[in-house]
Specification:
The complex is a heterodimer of chains A (351) and B (261). With 351 residues, chain A is an alpha+beta fold. Chain A contains ten helices and 23 strands. The mean pLDDT of chain B is 89. The chains are: A alpha+beta (351), B mainly alpha (261). At the A-B interface, α2 and α3 of A face α9 and α10 of B.
Chain lengths: 351, 261
């Protein structure tokens, strides 16, 4: 199944378009309120966009606005199963009946639906839970069963809305592994805030910010060479955007970050980005000398623990330093310091 | 077992609370002291008493079924639809709750009576509703419907639409969603609404006597019989009142689901 999506919802300031290829998992990334859930709701038929189309293979599921004759397929007829962060198992049905709900609703006989439910429960390693009530399940078990229930409905397009967000950090990895297995050949759109979800589950990512697609590409590309501020933050990288110079990027405020232009190098004067890892950044109290280094004056905004290091944030930029350095430099929010990064550590490429 | 201690209530609150409870229970209990227990068996097993009790149970059951048949759809529409005019309808449905039942009876009479808006036409078809057992059922349904609708609509709103959305995304048609998800989830609210409607029907008096009259065996339900006996045979009236109290207590005590109502 290939899906083509164009969505305009004026009220929420959303105007996005992207495609999902057959068997592909696409992750929608973006800050809260960017329009990800709105897009998912339009795909599932829960929201009628002001304009746009949703086309699954050759079937037009949604079409409104100036894009052609209006068309609307009801949510139940779309075969776009939805899995939200809350498992929402029907509390009055057993686990087996929950999973059999999809097949039963789409015309399968009792025995057939039961067999399908047993198959999918086994597929998610939850066969032994069949006779339990949802209230007797842990959060991780419930979400496992919810996955089986969604798959048992044999959706043409699977919609996942932050499926791991409500789970304990201890059980999320197991579910992620499970999803990686069952999503392998399935056409899926997943909304997530977690970089591991994108890395392990998604073939491609679509970054939405302020209701627009700001970047899309294969997961590896986008996370390694982000072009948008959100994707960089998501990948844990520093990104400085501006105009290309012969060996770097000049920010709108005039500060230039020197780096190593990629291949092909950006055209001088064109929009470009300079990207570097927080671990490549050294923090100094006073601006140091030495030409191959970039010195960026910043004000520390927050500190957060990161393994045995501390991530020092200063607006959009971050530096990873040792706990000892934090104490030695007296780093506290509000402190004026200089972030120093070698030009060889900075990748420069066009936006 | 250790009990969770909630934030304590102010002590003085218990006095008026107790008073309220006594205010409800005492009159009912006093009635029991007024009963001529020696004649009680004969009084409550008289032919008139038996036929009134049977009629009351039959008509109340019928009106409860009518309330379910039409009240469930109405509650679902009120709870789920977003049309603006529904706000007006929601207020109008509550009307029987605040109207004096006798006014309800007059309203029904002007609709289904022989010269009524619809009754006139039904009359030409040979159908006469007023002063029949059907009139009793209609009067009871009229006053009981809001109990079911209000109770069910509240339950539907509390349950929300999240499960409905999931069910639809799994391929369930709207009818399947209603039957297998929406209604089962609000079963406690539905049951308590039905019990309230039945209890209200059982006690219906004003609308019934106005619209259906008081004909023994046809329209004289238990409350109407008691009202009649009050003048002619006070002992029998008190005895029958106790029967009605027992039936009402049974209905509320046995049928009501745990934790609901």
């Amino acid at each position: 199944m290939t899906a083509r999506v164009e969505v305009v919802v004026a009220e929420r300031g959303v105007d996005v378009a992207f495609e999902v290829a057959e068997g592909e998992t696409v992750a929608l990334l973006g800050p809260n309120g960017a329009g990800k859930s709105t897009t998912l709701a339009v795909l599932g038929g829960l929201l009628r966009p002001d304009a746009g189309r949703v086309v699954l293979d050759d079937t037009v599921l949604t079409s409104c606005g100036p894009t052609g004759p209006p068309r609307w397929v009801a949510p139940h007829a779309r075969r776009t199963a939805l899995l939200a962060q809350d498992p929402l198992l029907f509390p009055h049905l057993s686990v087996l009946e929950n999973v059999a709900f999809g097949p039963r609703s789409t015309g399968s006989g009792r025995r057939e639906a039961r067999a399908a439910a047993e198959h999918w429960l086994a597929e998610v390693d939850a066969g032994e839970l069949a006779d339990r009530r949802p209230a007797q399940l842990s959060g991780g078990q419930a979400q496992r069963v919810a996955v089986a229930r969604a798959l048992a409905a044999e959706p043409r397009l699977l919609l996942l809305d932050e499926p791991m967000a409500a789970l304990d950090v201890a059980v999320a990895p197991a579910l992620r592994t499970l999803l990686r297995r069952v999503l392998a050949d399935r056409t899926t759109v997943i909304v997530t805030h977690h970089v591991l979800d994108a890395l392990l589950l998604a073939d491609r990512v679509v970054v939405i910010d302020g209701g627009r697609v700001v970047e899309q590409g294969t997961t590896g590309d986008v996370l390694a060479r982000p072009r948008s501020a959100f994707a960089a933050r998501f990948a844990g990288l520093n990104l400085v955007a501006g105009d290309a110079t012969h060996d770097g990027v000049r920010r709108p405020d005039g500060v230039t970050v020197h780096g190593t232009p990629g291949d092909p190098p950006p055209v001088e004067g064109a929009a470009a980005v300079a990207v570097f890892r927080p671990s490549a950044v050294a923090v100094h109290r006073e601006p140091p000398g030495g030409s191959p280094r970039n010195a960026l004056p910043v004000v520390v905004t927050e500190l957060e623990p990161l393994g045995d290091l501390v991530r020092v944030r200063a607006g959009d930029l971050a530096a990873d330093v040792t706990v000892a350095s934090v104490a030695e430099l007296g780093l506290v929010p509000g402190a004026a310091v200089t972030f120093v990064v070698k030009a060889t550590e900075v990748d420069v490429y066009s936006r | 077992m250790a009990r969770t201690r909630h934030v304590g209530l102010p002590r003085w609150l218990f006095a008026p609370a107790l008073l309220a409870g006594v205010f409800v229970v005492l009159p009912v209990a006093s009635m029991a002291t007024r009963i001529a227990w020696g004649e009680f068996p004969t009084l409550v097993t008289s032919e008139a008493a038996g036929s009134a009790l049977v009629l009351s149970l039959k008509t109340s059951t019928a009106s409860t079924l009518l309330c379910l048949l039409f009240g469930i759809p109405l509650a679902a529409v009120l709870a789920r639809s977003e049309a603006r005019w529904l706000g007006v309808l929601r207020s109008l449905v509550l009307l029987p709750l605040v109207l004096p039942p006798v006014v309800g009876g007059i309203a029904l009479l002007s609709t289904f009576g022989r010269q009524g808006l619809l009754g006139e036409h039904l009359e030409t078809l040979g159908i006469r509703i007023a002063f029949s057992s059907i009139a009793v059922v209609l009067a009871q349904t009229f006053v009981s419907l809001p109990f079911l609708v209000v109770s069910l609509e509240g339950a539907l709103r509390t349950a929300g639409e999240r499960y409905d959305v999931v069910a639809a995304s799994l391929g369930a048609r709207p009818t399947t969603v209603l039957r297998r998800v929406t209604l089962p989830l609000v079963l406690p609210g539905l049951a308590s609404g039905a019990v309230l409607a039945f209890a209200r029907s059982l006690g219906e008096f004003g609308a019934t006597i106005t619209f259906a009259g008081s004909l023994e065996g046809t329209t004289r339900t238990l409350p109407l019989l008691i009202y009649n006996l009050r003048v002619t045979d006070a002992d029998a009236a008190v005895a029958m009142s106790l029967v009605l109290v027992v039936v009402a207590v049974l209905v509320i005590g046995l049928v009501r689901p745990r934790g609901a109502l």
